[in-house]
Write a structure and sequence with these properties.
With about 240 residues, the protein is mainly alpha-helical. The chain has helices at about 5-25, 35-40, 45-60, 80-90, 90-115, 115-130, 135-150, 155-165, 170-185, 190-205, 205-235, 240; strands at about 60-65, 70.
Length: about 240
C-alpha cells in the first residue's frame, strides 16, 4: 500500500491502536499483532503504524522486545514503580529545573547526530502540535517531539533520564496546569515559533543555537507555569477564570 496521505493515516492508526489497547481483546501476554497485520487490519500503511507505535511507546503505553514483538503496557523491568515514586515525590517546578538543564544538551547533541529523516519527522510533529484542537492531542504530540529530539541525541543514558522526566506528562494534574498555562499566556503561536526554531537549528547542524532555542522555549513554559500556580495561591478562583 502506498504511503500517500500517511500524515492523516498516522492519526487514524493512532486512534485505532488506542482502541485496540483499550478493548481488552489482546492475548493474555498483551502481545500486539505484527506491523504488517495491523496495517492490513486498519487499511493504512506500515509507515503510519510505525509512527503511531512510536507515539504510544513514548507514552509508555507499549514496549518492544527485539525478536519477540510489541506488547501492551509499560516495560516490565521493575523500573516503573521506582519512577512512579520519584514522580510522586517531586513537583512541576522541580521537573522544569531538571528539564532546563537536560533538554538543551539533548538538542545540542541532536544537532550533531540527527539524520535528515529525523529532522523531517520533527517538522511533522511541530505541525501536529499546532494543528491539535484539544489539550490531549497537544500534549501527545508535544511529548513526541521532545522525545524525538532526545532520541536523536544518540545517548541511551540521557534518553533514560529524559523518559523519567517525561513520565510526569502522563499525570493528569500536569496536563491540566500546562493547558491552563497555554490559555493564560496565549502561547500557541509562540510555541509553534519556538518549536520551529529548535528544529531549524538542528537541521542547520548548529548545536549552540539548538541548545539556546530549547532553553528559551523551556523558560517560556516555566514562566507560564509560575504565573498560573502563583495565581492559584493568590486567588482560589483563578483556576475557574483561566479555564
Amino acid at each position: 500500500m502506498s504511503d500517500g496521505g500517511s500524515q492523516e493515516n498516522s492519526n487514524y492508526a493512532l486512534e485505532k491502536l488506542r482502541g485496540l489497547l483499550n478493548s481488552g481483546s489482546l492475548e493474555a501476554d498483551g502481545k500486539l499483532p505484527t506491523e504488517r497485520a495491523l496495517s492490513e487490519t486498519f487499511g493504512v500503511s506500515r509507515r503510519a503504524i510505525r509512527r503511531a507505535l512510536e507515539v504510544l511507546e513514548a507514552e509508555d503505553r507499549i514496549w518492544r522486545r527485539q525478536g519477540s514483538g510489541t506488547f501492551a503496557g509499560p516495560r516490565p523491568d521493575g523500573w516503573s514503580n521506582h519512577v512512579d515514586s520519584i514522580v510522586a515525590g517531586t513537583d512541576l517546578m522541580e521537573i522544569m529545573e531538571v528539564r532546563l538543564r537536560i533538554e538543551p544538551q539533548l538538542a545540542q547533541l541532536a544537532a550533531m547526530r540527527a539524520k535528515a529523516a529525523d529532522v523531517e519527522r520533527m517538522y511533522e510533529l511541530v505541525g501536529k502540535i499546532f494543528d491539535s484542537s484539544d489539550a490531549d492531542g497537544r500534549e501527545l504530540w508535544d511529548g513526541a517531539l521532545h522525545r524525538q529530539i532526545a532520541q536523536c541525541a544518540g545517548n541511551h543514558f540521557f534518553l533514560t533520564i529524559f523518559d523519567v522526566i517525561n513520565r510526569v506528562r502522563q499525570d493528569e494534574a500536569w496536563q491540566t496546569i500546562r493547558e491552563r498555562a497555554r490559555n493564560a499566556s496565549r502561547t500557541r503561536t509562540v510555541t509553534y515559533g519556538q518549536h520551529t526554531a529548535i528544529v531549524d537549528a538542528i537541521a542547520a547542524r548548529d548545536p549552540a543555537r539548538a541548545g539556546e532555542a530549547m532553553r528559551q522555549h523551556l523558560l517560556t513554559l516555566q514562566e507560564s507555569l509560575i504565573r498560573v500556580t502563583s495565581l492559584d495561591h493568590a486567588d482560589p478562583n483563578a483556576r475557574e477564570e483561566l479555564t
